[in-house]
């Protein structure tokens, strides 16, 4: 199939506008309309991963971490990043990354940790803002239902567990068409008053084009009046980290053993636990120390993530236990997640899980 079909699916699962500003998710090497016949999935794109793709005749590599974070000024093969990109191009292998946008969806990286730990009622720890917009338009009463339905079908009106949400008020609009106008109602050169419905509804930023097309194609007026407002509201099911509940509380040492076994880790760096049992658990795949304050505010008993620095451990301040399991370790099941959703959506397409452990960190016991 064409690469664009697969990337469109992935970007619907984890939209690109959910990624952080510093990130580089999306298609990194390749052309959207090229044919792909097999994909290799890994956490990182290294030279070993490229070689593995060549051996198994995969012409697409999907990774969580993008091989290119910053702009490349040269491709001379002096760094591993340059060598990976050069080899991928030589062998016509497309490279695609799905990074912080996958971190920020409910069934993403942190969601996978919640599943591994069997947490109940998981929710986003720090919901994102600036992802919602409001549409306001004005429509004749008789056509209001048709316009609303078209907007809803285009993705507008979704609020958490509710769909088809809108607010409607009735009033009248005025207009006076000139000789070149082709008004739906009224006469040219004469001010007309029409009973109208003011329709207000919200939509996700990435759906703006679809929503506007639906509006313009279904509204009866020649010139459609509408306003779009950027909203500060949080999108509660999109954001960083997650927090959920253990069905039964555990003593700290019991929980650490449970965590080690469920997440398949060798080492856990942790702060001194408090006296109460572990019930409420906050998690974040990758480097999550920036969420410590949010975990404390959520009354979590433990915060699981990776890459805490020495002095940051003090910031737990006996309010919760930090459990640093490592960056790779917290994200290692992301490849399984991606492989699973692709196989479910495209059962005839060949997708392989890498045989290599790309963790650059090793432990000596």
Automatic annotation (TrEMBL):
Residues at which a divalent metal cation 1 binds: 65, 103, 327, 331
Pfam families for this protein: DUF34_NIF3
Gene3D superfamilies: 3.30.70.120, NIF3 (NGG1p interacting factor 3)-like (3.40.1390.30)
Residues reported in the UniProt entry to bind a divalent metal cation 2: 64
Keyword Transit peptide: no
GO MF term (any one): metal ion binding
Zinc in keyword set: no
InterPro entries to which the protein is assigned, alphabetical: DUF34/NIF3 (IPR002678), DUF34/NIF3_bac (IPR017221), DUF34/NIF3_sf (IPR036069), N-reg_PII/ATP_PRibTrfase_C (IPR015867)
Keywords on record: Metal-binding
A single cellular component GO annotation: cytoplasm
Organism domain of life: Bacteria
Family note: Belongs to the GTP cyclohydrolase I type 2/NIF3 family.
Subunit structure: Homohexamer.
Name of the molecule in the record: GTP cyclohydrolase 1 type 2 homolog
Organism: Pedobacter nutrimenti
């Amino acid at each position: 199939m064409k690469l664009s079909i697969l990337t469109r699916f992935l970007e619907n699962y984890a939209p690109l506008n959910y990624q952080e500003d510093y990130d580089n998710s999306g298609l990194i090497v390749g052309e959207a309309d090229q044919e792909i016949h097999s994909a290799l999935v890994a956490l990182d794109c290294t030279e070993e991963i490229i070689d593995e793709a060549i051996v198994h005749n995969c012409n697409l590599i999907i990774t969580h971490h993008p091989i290119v974070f910053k702009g490349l000024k040269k491709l001379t093969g002096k760094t591993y990043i340059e060598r990976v990109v050069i080899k991928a191009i030589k062998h016509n292998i497309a490279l695609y990354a799905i990074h912080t946008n996958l971190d920020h969806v409910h069934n993403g990286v942190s969601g996978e940790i919640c599943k591994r730990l069997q947490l109940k009622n998981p929710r986003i720890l720090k919901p994102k803002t600036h992802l919602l917009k409001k549409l306001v338009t004005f429509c004749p009463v008789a056509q209001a239902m048709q316009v609303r339905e078209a907007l809803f079908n285009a993705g507008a009106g979704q609020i958490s567990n509710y769909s088809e949400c809108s607010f409607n008020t009735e009033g009248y609009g005025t207009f006076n068409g000139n000789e070149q106008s082709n008004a739906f109602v009224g006469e040219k050169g004469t001010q007309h008053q029409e009973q109208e419905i003011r329709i207000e509804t919200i939509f996700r930023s990435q759906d703006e084009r679809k929503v506007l097309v639906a509006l313009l194609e279904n509204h009866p007026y020649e010139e459609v009046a509408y306003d779009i407002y950027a909203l500060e509201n949080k999108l509660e099911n999109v954001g960083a980290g997650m927090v959920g509940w253990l069905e039964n509380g555990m003593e700290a040492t019991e929980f650490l053993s449970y965590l080690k076994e469920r997440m398949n880790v060798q080492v856990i760096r942790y702060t001194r636990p408090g006296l109460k049992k572990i019930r409420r658990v906050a998690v974040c795949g990758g480097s999550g120390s920036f969420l410590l304050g949010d975990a404390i505010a959520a009354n979590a008993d433990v915060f699981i993530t990776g890459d805490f620095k020495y002095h940051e451990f003090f910031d737990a301040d006996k309010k919760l236990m930090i459990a640093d399991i490592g960056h790779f370790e917290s994200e290692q099941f992301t490849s399984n997640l991606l492989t699973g959703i692709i196989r479910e959506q495209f059962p005839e397409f060949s997708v392989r899980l890498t045989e290599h452990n790309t963790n650059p960190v090793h432990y000596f016991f």
